[in-house]
Each structure stands twice: as C-alpha cells, then as structure tokens.
Amino acid sequence: MNRKEFVRLTGLGAASLAVLPGAKLFASPADTKVRMALIGTGLRGQEHLGLLLRRNDVDLVAICDVDERMLAFSRKLVDKSGKKMPEVFTGDNYAWKQLLAKHQPDGVIIATPWEWHKPMILGALDAGVKYVGTEVILGITLQDHWDVVHAAEKHNAHVMMMENVCYRRDVMAVLNMVRQGLFGEIIHLQGGYQHDLREVKFNDGVNPYGHGVEFGEKGFSEAHWRTEHSVHRNGDLYPTHGVGPLANYININRGNRFLSLCSFSSKARGLHNHIVKQGGEGHPNAKVEFKLGDVVTTSINCANGETILLQHDTNLPRPYSLGFRVQGTEGLWMDVNKGIYIQEKSAKAHQWDNAQGWLDKYDHPLWARWSKDSEGAGHGGMDFFVVHALVESIKRKIPTPMDVYDAATWSAITPLSESSIALGHQTVDFPDFTGGQWMYRKPVFSLTDEM
Ligand SMILES: NC(=O)c1ccc[n+]([C@@H]2O[C@H](COP(=O)([O-])OP(=O)(O)OC[C@H]3O[C@@H](n4cnc5c(N)ncnc54)[C@H](O)[C@@H]3O)[C@@H](O)[C@H]2O)c1
Asked: Could you tell me the domains of the chain?
C-alpha cells in the first residue's frame, strides 16, 4: 500500500503518519517533578496511588477521601513506598475544595463515584488546575458533558478521562494493524462492557466483592453507590471501556464523528435473582425493582460510514469479555474467540488464525518500550500507560492524548442511550462537542512509543 492510500484508509494526517519507535516528536521533558493530587482513594484510587508513588517524576502533594477505611489503606501504601506522606484532606464531601485551594497541584486525578466527577472537574478547573485526569464517565446528564467541555475551553485546560482499555496490549496491537491497513477500510466495530458485576454491586459492607447482598448505605466500595444507578437508570451505564478503543480505530473527533444512536434494553432479572439466591426471598432487597435492563444494546453510526454495536451486560453470570470486533474490507479481529482473519494473508481461507501471532508481530511500540515499567500495574499493565500519558503530558505541557472532547463524546453515550430507550428506542442525534472541529483535528493517540 502506498502512502496516499494509507492516509486515505486511516484518516491519519501526514504529520502523524506512522507509529514511530524511538521517535522524538516531543521536546525532552523537563527534569522537574510534577505536583499531583488524588481525590478519591477508594479501590480504583488506590491503584492510581500505587502508580503515582512508583514514579520518580511525581511529587504526590495531597490526597482526599471521606472514608477513613479507604484512607487507612492509602496511608499504608504510602508508608510502604517510602515516599513522603501527602497531606490528607477529609471530613466532609467538599474537603477536596480545600485541597485544591491550598495546593493548586499541576495535575489531579479524580477517582470518586460517577456523580462526583463533574463537580470535582469543574472545581479543579476553577481552582486553576491545568490537567485533570478523571476516572471513566465524565458526568451524568448530557448537560454535564457540555458543562465540562465549556469549562475546559474557558480555562484553556486539559481534561483527560483515564480510559485505560485504550492501552490494553491487544487493543493497541490492533490499533497498529488498523493504522497499517491490515484490515482494509474499517466498516463495522463492536465492543462493550460485559462483566458480571453482581458481586461488585452487592456485598456485606465489609468485603468489596460478594459476601452478601447489601448495597447503598450498607454496601462497601462500589456497592455503596454504583448499584443505585442500576435501580434508577436504564441505558448503557458504562460505555467508555468498549467505545474508547473503537473511537481510536476510526478517528472519532479527528476526521470522523458519531452521528446518531439507538439503544434497546432487555428485561431486568439478574440482580433480583442474585439477591434471592444469596439472601433469600425474605431479604428486604428482594423487593427492589431494578430499572437497568440486563443487556443493553446500542447502535451508533458514524460520519465516515462505519457502524458500531455496543453492549452493556453486567447483571448476569458470564465470564469477562469486552467483546471487541474490528472488521474491515480485508479482514477482522474478534477478541472473544482470540481470532484474526485477513483474506489472502491468513493461513487458510475461511479459517481463523490464532490472534496471538498477529498481535505479537504488530505489538505497539509503546508496549515494546514500556512493558517492563508496566509490570505489576493493574489490569494486565495497561493502568501504567494511562497514568504515564497524563504525567508525561503535564511534564511536556502538551495536550493529553485523549482530551475533553473524547471524554465527553464517549461518556455521552450513557444519557443518549437512556433517552433513546425512554423514547421507545428512538434514534437520537449525537451532539458534536467539537463544534465542527472534528473535520480538521488530526489523530494524536499513541502515534509514538513515548506516551
Ligand atoms: N478504569 C477502570 O478500570 C476502573 C476500574 C474500577 C473503577 N473505575 C472507576 O473509578 C471510579 C471510582 O471507583 P472505585 O471502584 O474506586 O469506587 P470506590 O467506591 O471503591 O471508591 C470511590 C471513593 O470515592 C470516595 N468519595 C465519595 N465521595 C467523595 C467526596 N465527596 N470526596 C472525596 N472522596 C469521595 C469514597 O469514599 C470512595 O473511597 C468510578 O468512576 C469507577 O467507575 C474505573
């Protein structure tokens, strides 16, 4: 394939042509440390904490949480690291405001329940923080997403959603293959969040997983808050792990965009059945009516003609799988069967190759370079890369590789799918958070082995 065809197929601009091992596209990072803070030191926040503590280019100045038990876990992690104890802010739901006012960190990571993300992002931007990394899901309503976009623009600041699956090793190898045109022109993509969360949504208030069917006030960690969303909302509540990688494959907000969306929801049985099975018919939670359908299916169409199918499936017994499928005019990858097929290149016509050979061959240079550093990091190492990208962006004073438009676009699938279902499965228009700039913006995600 010649260079012209490659640009046409991938939509990559000339300046961002190849994934360049060893490329030095950025100025060398300053030899300074970045001053970071962490709001939310729950189970996810502690993973970020561990990664921040491992880095010699990070000075962790402050942490904040309202839960003494989570803070105790976090203090232990700091002690074990041998690093200086950050100042701890706690006491009420707005202690993070004092943290921001006092320390004005270079960057902050937010790992709190979904409903806190928007106020904390806006609070950080108002306090003058220029780099905000927020855990997945930017806000709750469509307006929340607009508010965050407008605030980032007003403050000329960077809001990056810590979408770690974009950095999964196989996902990145496939990105490399997509960019090199192996699958031809991309036609259809699938993904989702297919994870049996029954033992996350319920527990005994002490153990994070299983051991009971309590939630809300009596639940611990995500059972304390996440389950309420299954009681009150029906839509794709967690789209970003699935859609983030897919959006990178087809350059969403960078030459392409989502146009419209339609969602369907199945009946809701899984959570109720789990309560009855584990807690008995007489358990008070057996009376709770869950609004969230067990399997929510969403279709999206794109300006460049691709279709996307997303599934949210968290209430039924099933092994974990994000269900990726990336299909083009020359072949496809599916993660569930660990298969790749590329016509005239695969070993046998109409038969899957074991994907691993292809994934090894097209291992992304970022992984090739940093895999040792990522050892021991959460989710098979990919968590290292998302923190790395945020910290390196701060050091270089450059935009983050996933920006506020990506965060808003991916997260907006939730309120849009809720609207679609509530309107009787109507197709709803997708807002253009970039205000037309999607036509001119160029892909930036992981073009080199730097970040
Ligand atoms: N990217 C991933 O792989 C991944 C994995 C797990 C969770 N998450 C996301 O991370 C976020 C946190 O999830 P989690 O599993 O850590 O939940 P968690 O319940 O274990 O932690 C949330 C923490 O936020 C704290 N908190 C709540 N309100 C607060 C406030 N006003 N001020 C300060 N702290 C407050 C809670 O006390 C708790 O410690 C969620 O957005 C979740 O979806 C992402």
From this structure: 32-161 (3.40.50.720), 169-365+404-439 (3.30.360.10)
